[in-house]
Amino acid sequence: MFGLGPMELVVILVIVIVLFGARRLPEIGSGFGKAIKNFKSGLSGADEIDVTPGNTAEKKKVDPGRSADPGAS
Description:
The chain is mainly α. The protein is built from 2 helices and no strands.
């Protein structure tokens, strides 16, 4: 695991406990777990794009010789 031995992991754990406190560690772990869960569900849901008739967006083709803004001259 990234070349970290047990002593390095213990030192990292002690530093985290000192910085955040033992009472906030479960809260931080829970938040981290929820973030990973949301990230994974977001990745799996990225393939399912909502293309209902009310939500379709038309792409406008722009002639290279004309401006994209119809009001601009």
